[in-house]
Design brief:
Distance between the termini: 46 Å
Helix content: 40-55%
Order of helices and strands: HHH
Oligomer: single chain
Strand content: under 5%
Largest sheet: none
Structural class: mainly alpha
Number of strands: 0
Number of helices: 3
């Protein structure tokens, strides 16, 4: 809960708090995301900040204060998932970290 409060008080309010809720646009949110990334904030952090905003805006939609949640995609910035190449065992690939000689003593078969 403290992290969400920090996102609101340290990130969202300083950047977007002066904009009336009815005047908030996707362009405001896109500019916020761009600014955060330029300040070298991590993609995961920016995603979490936008998720926090999206949750608050969803409550505003439920309470009929807003017609829609502007923080839902495409304004959301999803973290990139890393892609890993599969190991081709036929080409001599192995898992050295799993080799019995490299296992800690507690993990070795008896």
């Amino acid at each position: 809960m403290a992290r969400y409060r920090d996102y609101i008080t340290q990130d969202l309010i300083p950047a977007l708090g002066a904009i009336p809720l009815d005047d908030l646009t996707r362009q405001h949110l896109a500019a916020f995301v761009t600014d955060q990334l330029r300040r070298h904030r991590g993609r995961v952090t920016v995603h979490r900040i936008m998720s926090t905003l999206s949750s608050a805006l969803s409550d505003a939609v439920t309470g009929e204060r807003l017609p829609r949640n502007l923080a839902k995609p495409p304004a959301h910035l999803a973290p990139r998932r890393s892609r890993t190449a599969p190991v081709d065992r036929g080409a001599g690939g192995s898992f050295p970290a799993l080799h019995p000689s490299r296992r800690p003593a507690l993990c070795r078969p008896r």
